[in-house]
Specification:
With 204 residues, the protein is an alpha/beta fold. The chain has two domains: 125 residues, HAD superfamily/HAD-like (Rossmann fold, 3-Layer(aba) Sandwich), CATH 3.40.50; 68 residues. The chain contains eleven helices and seven strands. It has a five-stranded parallel sheet with strand order 5-4-1-6-7. It has a two-stranded antiparallel sheet with strand order 2-3. Helix 4 packs antiparallel against helix 5 and helix 6 packs parallel to helix 11.
């Protein structure tokens, strides 16, 4: 089946976002202490809950109740969230531009992202407006890798799984898409992405 639709993840594929850009300085370069904070206080799972639609202010208050001695560092997570945006991943955006310019594919984005912070990205990154549609997990009140968000994406933009290719840097999310019959590329870096797209005959 010929690929007609390409679905991009955003964070880690097209947009560089990393809380280290704020916290490494706060921990005076001590990566071990910073990682302990991420492992125990502002964890990956905690942040993903906000990606699924939980209020940022409520999430912050919840965490402060659990770790009152860390209040200033916890508040920093969303108060300084925009500083965690490192910019576009240029090589990947270049690939997206080529796909957009040739107009052969429907381009859709599927991202785990808080609905409260996504408007910041929309203002900052012009390339987000190249997509035919964007599905934001925080708006949908669910997230990758749960099947519902993939099914929502396919249905909303009239995409067939067998005609769609999904690009994401998270193997868990890739596996979930594959189980639904969507073709996949696990993203590692822009050069690898370009090579994989050439192998599939999507770009020359």
């Amino acid at each position: 089946m010929k690929i007609k639709n390409i679905i991009f993840d955003l964070g880690g594929v097209l947009i560089d976002w990393n809380p280290e850009y704020v916290y490494l300085k706060e921990f005076e370069g001590n990566r071990k202490k910073m990682q302990t904070f991420f492992d125990e206080v502002c964890t990956f799972d905690w942040n993903e809950n906000q990606d699924a639609g939980y209020s940022l202010s409520k999430a912050t208050k919840d965490r402060i109740k659990l770790f009152p001695e860390q209040e200033s560092l916890i508040r920093m997570y969303y108060d300084r969230w925009e500083e965690m945006l490192g910019g576009e991943i240029k090589g990947s955006v270049s690939v997206l531009r080529r796909l957009n310019d040739n107009s052969l594919y429907k381009l859709v984005a599927l991202t785990n992202w808080s609905a409260e912070t996504f408007p910041i990205a929309l203002k900052r990154f012009d390339f987000l407006h190249w997509f035919d549609g964007i599905v934001v997990s925080g708006t949908e009140k669910t997230r990758k890798p749960f099947p519902k968000i993939y099914q929502t994406t396919l249905k909303r933009y009239n995409l067939k799984a067998s005609e769609s290719l999904f690009i994401d840097d998270n193997k868990r999310n890739i596996t979930a898409a594959y189980k639904l019959g969507i073709h996949t590329i696990e993203f590692h870096n822009p050069n690898q992405l370009e090579k994989d797209l050439k192998i599939k005959g999507i770009i020359l």
